Amino acid sequence: MMNVYRKLRLYHAMLASAALAAYATGEAGLVHAWIGYVLVGIILFRLAWGIFGPSQFRIGRFLPDLASLLRIRAANDPAIARVLLGGVVASLLLVAGTGIALNQTKSLHLVTEARTVPVPRFDFRAHGAGMTHASTTANAGTDDDDHDEQEGWLQDLHEFAANLMFLFVGLHVSYMILFRRPLAMFMLFVPGHKQRTA
């Protein structure tokens, strides 16, 4: 049976790969959205694993608490690694949440657009048998403006969260290589390194 730490390393690799792929395909529309949903699935799996899995991998063990932060006396204190990991987790959840919200907003807008497509109709009263679609297009401009405004701030927040996540990832990786090198090398699949938890 696969060692628990090897499972954690595999999860870590899947999460990192999905996050990098999502970041790299930011302008790719549908591809980016699908990769984003894969990323959300990986996060949900980790949450379930943290709740129902082995006690040593419960999520609370990886996140900082106030008491441990107040006891920091050295640069290699594990609480610092937990703070950086907490930053990765928080920004990752924000990226996922805003990504889902953006996708739902775009989907709802497409449905709304389909319902407000101008359909010519006969107006027998004013112009005899003339056709008009003025009333169906009157509200379309307002709806588009509202959608663009909502999507604009969501898009900005999504991009900010993605950049913040990669800042925390960079700090997390750098810290682990400097102060927890054996574990970092194991997680990065560097040959010859076995897992160490201490």
Structural features, described:
This protein has 198 residues and is mainly alpha-helical. It has one domain (4-119, 132-187). It has 7 helices and 2 strands; from the N terminus they run ααααββααα. A two-stranded antiparallel sheet has the order 1-2. The longest helix is centred in the last third of the chain and has 40 residues, at 140-179. It is globular.
Keyphrases for this structure?
single chain, 198 residues, two-stranded antiparallel sheet, globular
Brief rundown of the structure:
The protein has 198 residues and is an all-alpha fold.
Spatially, the strands of the biggest sheet line up as 1-2
Number of contiguous helices = 7
* Biggest beta sheet summary: 2 strands, antiparallel
Mean pLDDT over all positions? 81
State which percent range the strand residues make up. under 5%
Q: In which range does the helix fraction lie?
A: over 70%
Radius of gyration: 24 Å
What would you call the structural class? Answer: mainly alpha
* Overall geometry: globular
Tally the structural domains: 1
